[in-house]
Design goal:
Rossmann fold, alpha/beta, 3-stranded antiparallel β-sheet, Pept_C14_caspase, 6-stranded mixed β-sheet, single chain, 12 strands
Length: 289
């Protein structure tokens, strides 16, 4: 019988080419890499990492193609993105319900098309056969006001010029924001989940660092910068590696509240209830939700 294959793509961008920088995304990649290697026994050769200038749109799409290529039932795939996120008005008419496309912002982000739209993720992820477990972690913002998130500790004096806590929402420029402005108030924001519905996909799990009307914090925690969501996710996983997803979500939310962060992480996991045998391959005999 063919062994289960575990593959991961980790993307973290602090240093953007043309938009505002962040501080904690590279540490997020380090945290996720350590967790996958030490707790879930991913092999280093099967973990691809893109950071800063290497995390261009073309490179991210190429690595996502690598991630899904050749996947078979029983395989375990992980995609983690730590960086800016935003929303744009849907331009191709496929979002009749809410009219908004969520985007991830690569290193070479610009508003003339150099961004990754949820439709592109959908086209890649729906190529996966049934029985593949795909777990996606997005520590970015899908909506927000552009205001700085409160919370986190004050950095030491030598780091004082850096903002202690940033958010990971990239506001569109005025000309993009005002397109179709008369229609925006009538639209419902749905979040970044198009690749995870029932249109031919199974066992796809989406974690996002905040609700779709919130910002994800890029924060100074425990002496270094991190994405607050990724930091607490990994902290709780290391304390309790066999924790259920439901309980993990509760603990991460509680830690964020305790730290003074307003963001509420979300978990789209309907498909995980469809095949408990698959989960036992990954997490052992302990009940996993």
């Amino acid at each position: 019988m063919r062994d289960m294959v575990k593959k991961a793509l980790l993307v973290g961008i602090n240093d953007y080419k043309s938009v505002s920088d962040l501080n904690g995304c590279i540490n997020d990649v380090r945290d996720m890499h350590f967790t996958l290697r030490s707790l879930f026994r991913f092999e280093t050769a099967n973990i691809r990492v893109l950071t800063d200038a290497r995390a261009t749109k073309d490179n991210i799409i190429a690595r996502l193609d690598w991630l899904v290529r050749g996947a078979k039932p029983g395989d375990f795939l992980v995609f983690h993105f730590s960086g800016h996120g935003s929303q744009i008005r849907d331009r191709d008419g496929d979002e009749l319900s809410d009219g908004m496309d969520e985007i991830l912002c690569p290193y070479d982000m610009n508003w003339d098309g150099i961004f990754i739209v949820d439709d592109e993720l959908n086209r890649i992820f729906t190529r996966l056969p049934d029985g593949v477990l795909l777990e996606v972690f997005l520590d970015s913002c899908h909506s927000g006001t552009g205001l700085k998130e409160l919370g986190g500790l004050t950095p030491p004096p030598e780091l004082a010029p850096l903002t202690p806590t940033l958010n990971r929402f990239l506001p569109p420029p005025v000309d993009i924001e005002f397109r179709f402005a008369d229609e925006i108030d009538q639209l419902d924001h749905r979040g970044f989940n198009k690749g995870f519905d029932d249109r031919g996909t199974k066992h796809h799990i989406l974690w996002s660092g905040c609700m779709d009307n919130q910002t994800s914090a890029d924060a100074y925690i425990s002496g270094a910068y991190h994405g607050a969501f990724t930091y607490y996710l990994n902290s709780h996983l290391r304390r309790e590696p066999t924790i259920s997803r439901k309980r993990l979500l509760e603990k991460v939310r509680a830690s964020l509240r305790h730290g003074g962060y307003s963001q509420i992480p979300q978990l789209e996991m309907e498909a995980t209830n469809r095949d408990r045998a698959l989960k036992k391959q990954i997490f052992g005999d302990k009940e996993v939700d």
